[in-house]
Amino acid sequence: MTKTYALKGNIIYSKNQNEINCFENSYLICQDGKSMGVFEKLDEKYKDIEVIDFGEKIICPGLVDLHIHAPQYNFRGMGMDLELLDWLNTYTFPSEAKFKDEDYAKRSYQRFVDYLKYGPNTRHVIFASLHVKSTQILMDLMEKSKMVSFVGKVNMDRNGGVDLEEKDADESEKATLDWLESIKGKYKNTYPILTPRFIPSCTDELLEKLRKIKDEYNLPIQSHLSENLGEIEWVKELVPKAKFYGDAYNIFDLFGKNNKTVMAHCVYSNDDEQDLIKENEVFIAHCPDSNTNLTSGIAPAGKYLREGQKIGLGSDVAGGTHASIFKAMADAIKVSKLRYRLVDEKIKPLSLEEAFYMATLGGGEFFGKVGSFEKGYEFDTIVIDDEKLLEEDKFNLKQRLERIVYLSKDEDIVSKFVRGNKIF
Ligand code: GUN
Ligand code: FE
User: Fold this and answer.
1) Centre of ligand 2 from the C-alpha of residue 385, in Å
2) How far is residue 161's CA from residue 333's CA, in Å, rounded to a whole number?
3) Is the pTM of this model over 0.95?
4) Which ligand is closest to the CA of 197, given by its number?
5) Around ion ligand 2, which residues have CB less than 5 A away?
6) Residues 44, 92 share a domain
7) What's the domain count of the chain?
8) pLDDT tens sequence across 137-174
């Protein structure tokens, strides 16, 4: 791939929460992995660059998945009759325990990465399992794919059962340090992220150790927050001194104040928790598919977005069944309508513009300047062939985007670029 090149086609990207920029038959220029912007005509200075002409196809920013579990890919679509805590014990923990076996991990993670590669997402924030070797395998494979990701070796020193638990806080700390040392300087596009699974999996002693590790290595943090009512009651018993669930992380400085943090779900965050999320600029990963499958509930995503919270979308495979963030957009819009009709008519349903914002700029901010084609943003791009969806009518670009969100399949993604590198 040349250093400077252009893609030609019908270009769409989110301008802000309420507006979508649409350019018919235009040029999107990439220079050194960054967007130089969208142009109706190529300037004289670009007259010699390579132009890849995608004709009538749609070109839009790659989508961002703020929350996905790599070792859960193998059992997606199973156990969907259970709620969170039973689902974790019955399906998730036994399934993740298999990643102790490195050969199994290699085969499974290869399938997982191939699956992500041909979908619409270009960036992922990923939970691996607690196993150091398997996490290294996953990071090697993600790096090879040229997609950009954060990957976390999971910490859990309680309530995982015999097969999925680190012996104590010391063992979890040592494994985390071994992992961090083993990957130092190894990758260009794959970053470590500290990953205490959730409060019920981590003793206070472990969280105290993780605070020191994140300071020493200056790491971002990911975890789960206020997903399920039974989980929230349990956290109250486990950490009685915490004023609310998020405070149980905040006590150990694992809640965004000093390190970039993303918390999945926030279905039941109370006012105090929402205030602290805002104050600490914690990112919310809204995971509507998972919250439906596990009967968790419906997060007030529209409220969060409109109040200026940092929020993007997550697939939460295998609580969610599909990794595609187009699907997460449709799910987010649908559940927001049910919430509006059945729970709270003060929070209007999400619009297409809002969902597109969360899928691109909203989640993209966790990675930096990502999710837009404005000049200076990282060049993450997907090309979609929606010819089958055009019927005989003339749709405008926004209408075509809406149909892609609801109707497209991974097979319709015909090309993908991340940081200017061609993925396929
Ligand atoms: N809370 C703790 N672990 C998990 C997990 O693996 N998936 C979901 N959805 N919630 C969790
Ligand atoms: Fe999750």
Assistant:
1) 31
2) 37
3) yes
4) 1
5) 264, 316
6) no
7) 2
8) 999 999 999 999 999 999 999 999 989 999 999 999 99
